[in-house]
Write a structure and sequence with these properties.
With 134 residues, the chain is α+β, with helices and mostly antiparallel strands. The protein has a single domain (10-123), classed as VSR Endonuclease (Endonuclease, Chain A). The chain has helices at residues 10-21, 56-59, 72-95, 109-130, and strands spanning 27-32, 35-44, 49-54, 99-104. It has a four-stranded mixed β-sheet with strand order 1-2-3-4, with helices on both faces. Helix 1 (10-21) packs across helix 4 (109-130). The chain is globular.
């Protein structure tokens, strides 16, 4: 497992390329503010939008997630721990004022980018409308 990609996976790279081609700029693998051991896959810092690209196996996709047949008990523990860590990270980010959006690796890249761009535009419009004139 140490040799498996944890960042810069193919689905993540495809999504980043699509977002970048739309003129959206973001940070990659940004540390979670309240937990420096965890990172945000794609972070729009001004909008406080955190995007995660989750693998179907590792994060328990309801459509494509599978359970290995060998060493079943350990894998159930491992995958449940992954989900719990995802939920905990999401709670920490939300408490810090971030919006969290998750994308499954099997989702269409263009459709995912459309959702993220809409969300980003809504968040940046909300923030700019709240600023008071000087």
């Amino acid at each position: 497992m140490a040799h498996l990609a944890r960042r810069h996976t193919k689905p993540e790279l495809l999504l980043r390329r699509e977002l970048h081609s739309r003129g959206l700029r973001f940070r990659v693998q940004l540390k979670v503010p309240s937990n420096r051991r965890r990172t945000i896959d794609i972070a729009f810092t001004r909008a406080r939008l955190a995007v995660y690209v989750d693998g179907c196996f590792w994060h328990g996709c309801p459509e494509h997630g599978t359970q290995p047949l060998t060493n079943r008990e350990w894998w159930q523990w491992k995958l449940a721990r992954n989900k719990a860590r995802d939920e905990d990270t999401e709670l920490e980010l939300r408490a810090a004022g971030w919006t969290v959006h998750r994308v499954w690796e099997h989702e269409d890249v263009v459709a995912s980018a459309d959702r993220i761009e809409r969300l980003w535009r809504n968040l940046t419009e909300d923030r700019s409308s709240r600023k008071s004139p000087t």
